[in-house]
Amino acid sequence: MPSLVHHPLDPASRLVRLMCAEYGVPLDLEEIKPWLREEALLEINPAATLPILFTDTEQAVVGILATLHVIEDFYAPDAVGGLVPADPMARAEMWRLVEWALVKLNDEVTRYLVEEKIAKRDLRGATPEPAVLRAAKANFVEHMLYFNYLLASRNWVGGDEMSLADFALAAHFSTLDYMGDIDWSKAPHETRDWYSRIKSRPAFRTLLNDRVTAMPPSKGYANLDF
Amino acid sequence: MPSLVHHPLDPASRLVRLMCAEYGVPLDLEEIKPWLREEALLEINPAATLPILFTDTEQAVVGILATLHVIEDFYAPDAVGGLVPADPMARAEMWRLVEWALVKLNDEVTRYLVEEKIAKRDLRGATPEPAVLRAAKANFVEHMLYFNYLLASRNWVGGDEMSLADFALAAHFSTLDYMGDIDWSKAPHETRDWYSRIKSRPAFRTLLNDRVTAMPPSKGYANLDF
């Protein structure tokens, strides 16, 4: 069975867990805290980033781009219904939005909130910097407007079919939702409906049981009717 | 002919130009300054990032991940000698290092230097912040140590064969080199030899004629014997 070195609130690790669950690939999970930059992590990945996947043959696959491609190469079901569209232009739109989640949304929102709320406390008992939290949340409002614009004319974020783009975005949403950083009472209904649909998928169940020490999830986190 | 919306010092655009040149795909180039966030750019790409490729059928492909995949899907030669290794684990190592260049090196080095030296001056005539330049250059020293470690035991950065990983890294190197941010007199010889080999490829020629208004390239930029 492949195993995944992950942190429960790392959105890239969550994307891999969602993808594997959707493809019916069981994963052994090994939890680490990448911000501790432990020697064992740095030896495998000097970038000290997650995820790291060990294949059935125990070869290390490092980083989210490599991991997504390896899962698609080795573990995607042959049957119709994968997460990567067959049409090249639909695939390009999927990659555009995967990049949006992994790079832009991460850079402007998620990584600040995880660092302030989780890593800083864990590393030196520090409390989050209110100005950073405010900036990240203001950025998220702008992202939400864009997702809502897309979802007003599309079934799924990349188009008519659910794809890896939905999972990449939902992975970030679920991290933010765990930390209580999504105000659903103010969220536009298209985005809320989309998240509700994707959260109801069997693949999502594994994430909803996650618990981080000394940080319980927000009230609606595991609730399908949030 | 496909066309590329790019900026000469944007490393992701440079990667696409290198890849297309290597594959013998001619490109129409349209230069823009993404930091101006002009309406025409935002309509195609609300993230205001480059590159944007227009295919032969004038469909927009937005962002570096989408563009790399579309070039590989539509334009890669069938013959042996592409930039994406056939072996899945070699491909995973390639993606790890592409991610290193596009995300980590960009985040810690290149984007700060381009922003300070090019975008800030262009937007408001401001001079670069010395502390930011110093931090980015100190980060680059660390990156160099790692590339040198890799190249001490490998022919190319991802392994025995040249791949997209070399081009991704070389695209960043060439942007930094243009701006005079690589001190070759102090660079370890493995990395210098590698850059010399890749810079000598015919595909690299197009980049070496680049000129940015009011910012001539560093002395050795176009020199194959730097």
From TrEMBL, chains A, B:
Gene Ontology molecular function: any one: glutathione transferase activity
One matching Pfam family: GST_C_3
GST C-terminal domain sequence ranges: 87-218
GO term, biological process aspect, one: glutathione metabolic process
PANTHER family noted in UniProt: GLUTATHIONE S TRANSFERASE D10, ISOFORM A-RELATED
Assembly and interaction partners: Homodimer.
Protein's UniProt name: Glutathione S-transferase family protein
The organism of origin for this protein: Devosia sediminis
Top-level taxonomy: Bacteria, Pseudomonadati, Pseudomonadota, Alphaproteobacteria, Hyphomicrobiales
